Structure formats: C-alpha cells, structure tokens
Amino acid sequence: MTMPPKHATMVNAFSPDNMASLDPVMQDSVKKRLRLLGPAYRLFYQNPVQVSRGAGVHLYDRDGQEYLDAYNNVVSVGHAHPRVADAICRQAHTLCTHTRYVQDGILRYSDEILSTFGGQLGMSGHMMYTCTGSEANDLALRIAQHHTGRNGIIITSEAYHGNSYLTAGLSPSLGARSPLGTWVRRIPAPDSYRLPSKDMGAWFADCVRAQIHDLERHGNGLAAFIADSIFSSDGIYAFPTDLLAPVAEVVREAGGVFIADEVQSGFGRTGDKLWGYQRHGVDPDIVSMGKPMGNGFPVAAIAVRPEIVAKFGGDMRYFNTFGGNSVAIAAAQATLDVIRDEQLIENAQRVGVFLRKGLRELQTRYPQMGDIRGAGLYIGVEMVKDPVGKQPDAALASAIVNGLRERRVLISATGFYANILKIRPPLVFSEDDASRLIEELERVLSNF
C-alpha cells in the first residue's frame, strides 16, 4: 500500500492558498476568520460554505440558497427543531444552574435514559454529565484507570475519541503529528471489505489479547478498551456484528473495563436500536454519549456500572460547572422525546435501507464505488481505483465530496486513506432527500 494521504479533514478542507478563487465577500469572511480564530481551525470544502440558518435537513446561506445536509449528525432530529428550541427557551427563562441542587429534570432524564441500555447499566447504572463527548470519554477513562490501578488503553487503528489531552492521545485520526499516549495500543480496524467476515470476532479478540500482553510486558497492564461500535473514523464498518462481545470477554479476563463510545453511533443513528453497541449483543461497563444528545446544545454524559465508579466516587468528588445544567437537560430530554415520538429510529432504518439500495444500484454503473456499507443513517462508500485490487482512491473521494458541494449537497470523507464517502444526515432524512443525494452523486460521478 502507498503512504496514507493527509487526514480526511485536510483532504476535505479549504486551503488558504486558494483564497484568490473566492468571491470578494467570502474572501473577506475567510480572512477575518483566519485572523480571529487562528490556524488550527479548518473549513470544509475547497469552496467553503457560508451558512446563516437551518431547518430540518437543510442549511441556507446569506443569499437564501438551500443545501441538503447529509453529513451533520449533531442536530440528529434536524436543524432548529421547534420542540428542542422551545424547551431550551422555556428552561432558560426559568432557571439555569448546576447539578449541586436537587432538580427534577435531571432525575427524570437520567431514569429514562438508563432504562434504554438494558443489562447491568439499565438495572443499576449511574449517569454522570459533561458538556462534550471529549469530556465524557476523558471521564470514562479516568474512572477506568482509577478502578483498575492501571493505565493501558486499547483503541482501533484510526479511532477518534476526543480533543482533551487524554482523549487526543488515543485519537490517531487527528493525524500522524498528534502524539499518542505512552500507554495507548492500537489494533487493526475490522475492514470487512478486505478481510473475511468468517471468524472476524475471534480474530478481533486475538488482536486485543496481543496488545494486553504487550501492556503487561511493559509493566502496567490494561485499564480499558474503548471503541465506537460502527468504527466511524476507521471507515464505517457496520458488519459483522459479532466483534465486540468476544472483545469484552478478553478485556474483563484481564481485569479491564469495556467502554462503548456512542458519541457518534448512538441515539438511533444505526437504526434497529437506540445504541450502536446493542447491535453487537454486548453489555458495556461504561457508555459515553454526546454530539446528538442535545440536538446541537452542548450536553454529554457517561452511564457507568456502580462497581466501576465506586472507588473513584469514594476517593474524590466529581463536579462539572456546566455539565448537566438545567438548560442542557431540557435540550436532552426534548431530543430524546422527539426521537421516540417521531419514530426516528424506525426512520433511520427504513431510509437507510432505501439509500443503500440506491447506492448499490449506482455501483453497478460506477465500479469505482468499491463497497457500500453501513447501518441506519450512517453509510460509507469506499472509492477505489480498481475494484479488483481495491486500491484506495482518496483523490476521487475528495473530488466527489467537493463536486457534491457545488451541487449544494453536503457529505464528507473518512478512513485511513480518506477515500470513504461519509454519509451521516440528520435522522429526519427522508426517501426524497435520499433520492436527491443519489441523483446528484450520479451527476458528479458521470464526470469521471
């Protein structure tokens, strides 16, 4: 294989070297952004998108042009959903304070969300609130390390788990120059396109076992294994679904903690169930959640088994000034209510099947679409130079992403080679929206 290209967020990004190609108004905005926000921020697309408002699955720029948003999973129930917006507004007019007072809202939400997990978490788990998924994963790992007295963490090869100091150190998808932690070990992604699915669960568990042995040999041992159940940054691998249960057994045999990172795959994203890990039939020790939890309002959390957090809670206190505040909980409750009342898990399943079927039909005419995979409304399309050799084609993926942007359809790219189209729309995406995406994708593909 050739060396990997720049990370997907760089491939699908605006370069300041192309400033002259922008119209004067956009040039002015981008120059101000660079001056005020600095060099670490990235804009999507070679031709950046300016947005002024959103509604449902659509974004609108200052000129009123409409864009189909087939990428944004944060606003899972749609941009500016009135029930969520109204709940935030009402609560902000009533009270916004922290968790060190007794409040009914956080108790109602915690009771309701815990009931969705089943297993040990559903029977006796605790909720702990943060503002972001990075904070949630950071807290989950701190608890695991304190519980076990060890530091080792095992992740998948191109994982993303956050932006805090600890979680950035176990997020190789941030790029080769973003250092990994000393006690972090990586296992291969479960590449169902190139690896045989038969016995993949046993192979995956063996990979974890080997890294546990390496951690122990270097004098520390395993604190936790953490994975996103749809392997989002690795390339979106939805099947097979017998991967995580064998891993959980190996992790617990070594005295470690199994953490399900549901920040991207949770809240109905994969169809069938509310949580992605439930597709694998595994009962985690800790579940982290964030991104879509408040439909864009910053709220995140972990659910943790009581025996895992007991020592941590006895030895130190946990407090987050804004985590679980009154308005955040109102946003989370309204979002959960909308997912249930509008049957968005069922919608994700139905429209996801429709969309994948349409993509596979398109694949018969465009063999560069080497693999179509995913679950619910989380779909990956792997672009290759040769469907026999399966050589990744990052340049084609980038051209498609930017070609769709010019047709006002927004997606992104992911994976180690940044060659996988990442389709992850709000859960209110309809079959008509899916048809528009497929039609526009064919128009872009016809140019290659």
From TrEMBL:
Looking up InterPro entries in the UniProt record yields: Aminotrans_3 (IPR005814), Aminotrans_3_PPA_site (IPR049704), PyrdxlP-dep_Trfase (IPR015424), PyrdxlP-dep_Trfase_major (IPR015421), PyrdxlP-dep_Trfase_small (IPR015422)
Q: Does the keyword Transferase apply?
A: yes
Give the keywords, sorted: Aminotransferase, Pyridoxal phosphate, Transferase
Name of this chain's protein: 4-aminobutyrate aminotransferase
Return the Pfam families for the record: Aminotran_3 (PF00202)
The prosthetic group or cofactor this protein requires is: pyridoxal 5'-phosphate
Q: Name one GO molecular function term.
A: transaminase activity
Q: Which residues, if any, are the signal sequence?
A: none
Q: Which organism is it from?
A: Komagataeibacter diospyri
Keyword presence, Transcription: no
- Write out the similarity annotation: Belongs to the class-III pyridoxal-phosphate-dependent aminotransferase family.
